[in-house]
Amino acid sequence: MTVKHTVRTYSSKENLPREEQLAYKLAKVATDPVEVDPDVVDMVINRIIDNASVAIASLNRAPIVSARTQALGHKVTEGSGFTGNGALLYGAPDNNAAVSPEWAAWANGVAVRELDYHDTFLAAEYSHPGDNIPPILAVAQHVGSNGKDLIRGIATGYEVQVDLVKGICLHEHKIDHIAHIGPSAAAGIGTLLGLDIEIIFQAIGQGLHTTTATRQSRKGEISTWKAHAPAFAGKMAIEAVDRAMRGQTSPTPIYEGEDGVIAWLLSGPDASYEVPLPEQGEAKRAILDTYTKEHSAEYQAQAWIDLARKLHNDHPEVADPNNVQSILIKTSHHTHYVIGSGANDPQKYDPTASRETLDHSIPYIFTVALQDGAWHHVDSYAPERAGREDTVALWNKVTTEEDPEWTRRYHSLDISEKAFGGSVEITLTDGTVITDQIAVADAHPLGARPFAREQYINKFRTLAEGLVAPEEIERFLDAVQRLPELGAGELGQLNIVAAVELEKAQKGIF
């Protein structure tokens, strides 16, 4: 039975025992030796495939080239204390890709996030829990872990992140959601390595302390840092675990202290939060509450792309701006204010905006999907596509507004009614009004075409085509689906070697 833990600010004189601190309770979850359920094992494999898909598709995009070039400047070396064999980089040949694990997590984390095309979980906060996989996998490769250990570590990373996302909202205080990745990745690495509760407790505290940042990275003209931010959190988590293993301590209590996160970064010293955590001996199943993307766009856009495809087929006349007077999207508070017209960001209507900005513009995404009846991870963001005259004309007729019922469903903890869509009213110039609605994306577990192993594999094959040799595609898919059987030191089989030349970035400091 999941238990909700109340988290609030304590004055220093109250001397909150560490056993009562949230970071310690998260560490206790990480050290629980409970077995991983078979359906969770299957989903972990699915998400490793999913991450590999989107990472391969973005191998020569500028942020990945930069991060990979940086990582290759940090080859694994012998040092004092804990050493290992290094970790591998997506796309790079094994013979020159072994780098220090925190740098592998950095490069692979950027590759996974760049296209905004992997898994998601939305509750009080929003997140991409698949961001936990690069740092946990990097450490697993470095230390020679086996497949079962990796699965356990990833199950913990998902559990901790999802539970934090259910209980603690960051964005209302303009704190970026990567602040939940530092603790979750640190916890997952702790499980992977079988560390004791005190080390994991200290690592979680450091992981949180070093990854709190503002949401300006997702506001206005969105920069390439958006892809780097979660990778930075994963890198910091590895470094935090390393320091904790060497006996170094963290700010305590990190959440509850009078100068801590709740008091000064979140809702203040009078606020409290309820964080649900599994009881001791309860299986870690949070990964099953998460969902991936069929389309390369912000998750709140997934259902809208599917609805736009449907409208494109049912009412082809709406693709022509000359036939349309207005398009009103009624949706949740989050969708309206973050990626809709409620954000008051003129860039969301700017045909010269960056891909990262267009990815966070429901007016743009709905317009293109409505006109094309499809969505492509490259073509739909091309400058010539965004600047098309008829697209700009239709785009500027799309607005959003908050609907309280869709907001309620967005925040519902009942998975059966939780929704990320809304309703649309398309008013034509002849006075006809076309209405329709959608609750969840087609690929959602409750959607029209839920993703299963077949769809994950197809996504990988589609995105890897032309970038990875056919025999390498088959080798990877065989290895990852045998993950529980992979022995110590065999996790390098989860790397993928590209068949195309990997670009290098311009010179920096190292």
TrEMBL record:
Superkingdom, natural source: Bacteria
Transmembrane parts of this sequence: none
Limits of the MmgE/PrpD C-terminal domain: 295-483
Domain MmgE/PrpD N-terminal: residue ranges: 20-273
Alphabetized Pfam families for the sequence: MmgE_PrpD_C, MmgE_PrpD_N
Record InterPro entries: MmgE/PrpD_sf, MmgE/PrpD_sf_1, MmgE/PrpD_sf_2, MmgE_PrpD, MmgE_PrpD_C, MmgE_PrpD_N
SUPFAM superfamilies, alphabetized: 2-methylcitrate dehydratase PrpD
PANTHER family documented for this protein: 2-METHYLCITRATE DEHYDRATASE, 2-METHYLCITRATE DEHYDRATASE-RELATED
Family membership noted in the UniProt record: Belongs to the PrpD family.
Record protein name field: MmgE/PrpD family protein
The species this protein was found in: Kocuria gwangalliensis
Lineage: Bacteria, Bacillati, Actinomycetota, Actinomycetes, Micrococcales
